[in-house]
Amino acid sequence: MGHEAWSDDAPAAPEPDPYQPGTAPLGEGRPGPMAYGVDPVAKVKPPAICLIIFGALFGFLSLCGAGQGIAMLAGALPGPQVPPDAPPEVAEMMQQWYTLAPIMNVVTGFMGVVTCVLAFVAGIRLLSMRGATLAKVASVLIMIPVGGCCCLGIPLGIWVLVTLGKPEVAAALREADDYARG
Description:
Helices cover 65% and strands 0% of the residues. It is mainly alpha-helical. The protein has one domain. The protein is elongated and about 100 Å long. It starts with 39 loop residues before the first helix and ends with a helix. 25% of the residues are buried. Mean pLDDT is 82; it is low at 24-29.
């Protein structure tokens, strides 16, 4: 009578359905990403798409600003001019600033391009639920006022950081990274 427990004919315990919220086995007692009842991919998709758009749009504008600075340094574009009726001390200060303006255009333009390329790549990686660290770094960098994109970079960076900090999103990103590592 007690041999049924040892036989191969005994019914096996039902396997959890990985497509039901909260039932996907992850090990170490971590809740699955769907345990919270919300699809983490749906939460990550809007900020990821905004990172891509931000990176493409402001990357192009930053590149234009750097190009303008290079053209001004090369003499192809005239730089700002000091008004002839400016007082001498103001004219001297303006001339010093106008000498630095093209250099600042080049520096901030290239810094903006690097930041926007990182944001663009981070957005693409987030769409595939990868690269949480890159997205966090890019989010912090787009909040730094380099060039003229800080008015949109600050709320977007905060939105991405808040989204990535949600438990269900963090669990899904950890799971995707663990799967990718093998």
